[in-house]
Write the structure tokens for this entry.
Amino acid sequence: MKPIAIFQHTHVGQPGAVVTVLNELGVPWVVVPVMDGAPIPEDPSSFSGLILMGGSMGVNDGLDWIDDEIRLVRKAREQEIPVSGHCLGSQVMSAAFGGKVERGPAMEIGWHKVDYAPVTETREWFGNGADEIFQWHGDAFELPEGAVRLASSSLYPNQAFVLDDRHLGMQFHLEMTPELVELYLQANGNMIDRELAKGAQAVNSRDEVASNLQKRTSAMHEMMRKAYARWAKGLK
């Protein structure tokens, strides 16, 4: 099998438990270190699938590599190569598939509940889901035409979608490990402080973000195993 290409956009935005799950599934993978200047491939056919990780930048920031990544995702869809996106990755997917990405109503940071859509696809991709999901984002995406909504929240009606029964976009961060959460806090904890000072309602305190991490991340990993086992069925 050709490897999965995992696109890492920032040093903090590591794939985390994604690689653990892919290893469990026996799926080979390589990391494309975009944060270190690695170019975006022009043709996705060297890979059996694409996974796009998160990042502090936005789809509308005018970065050349984001435009290149959008083009790559479009080509992957044309070639029926599965794509999965976490946070920024899901926004890139939405833009590539014809959706609009814009600033959301407020930041969501920390552990939050989502509402799982009462459709067959939700159970197929997420099983029973996880009670709490890790969020760290301020942009929102539209559902691309033909996509099925899998999850939503009060602030962000589009939290996850599947398109063509093979492309999975997720606004949230199922990949987080306890160590990765701590790294996020070390690198970006000042954002929490700023948002709380403004009275943000969907932002956890640093202590809450860092609490009960083993149980919380383990529940997400079970959800992610279900999602990637389903996703891997479409790999060539």
User: Anything to note?
Assistant: Strands lie at 4-8, 29-33, 49-52, 83-86, 101-112, 115-116, 133-141, 148-152, 160-163, 167-170. The mean pLDDT is 97. The chain has seven helices and ten strands.
